[in-house]
Amino acid sequence: MPEKLILHYRDPGASPADPQWLEQQLRAIGFLGERYNQAGDNQFLTGPDFLQYISFIGCSPTIYTTLNEAGRPGFCHMEISTVSQQTRFLGANNIRYFYCPHCRHKAKEPTFRHMQDPDGPDNLWKCPDCGNDIPVYELDLREQGGFGRFYIAIWGIGEGLAIPSDKLLAELERITEKSWRFFYCRTHE
Ligand SMILES: [Zn+2]
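That is the input. Now the predicted structure with zinc ion docked in place:
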């Protein structure tokens, strides 16, 4: 089951004015490597300083990052999305629970109906505790999902295995002049 860590703007409506320029900046800091042709043309190797930008939790596992290892399960590489016109749900089906941003009610009900079409008629979630109607973008999905128009994915990073380093979040904010967040995405196959 493929796993990835998704980085995206905290503002769900934000997008880069020039994705190619952003790509160049990410390469200049050693985070992003060269483009390679497998499963689409927006796939990249990790950059030479990649390990400075990811903090492994617990002992560091062996990770596979070279082109020769591209076929291995868990191959660690990167993907830069295109910019979508609409804000959309960027995650998969690994949301187990989320919080009401107003009263911190913990909701366990699955909300994919809301998530998959955030601009649709069902895009409000009614909190059973405080009664607020809340746009799904504002729900606190913790590190299990997010909304946006653009993302950077690091493939091969499982949930809780590693987090973006402070240095990475600071560099993303410096380059884009916007705040970023992250979550884990796991697709069942
Ligand atoms: Zn509430």
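The chain has two domains: 3-85+143-186, 96-140.
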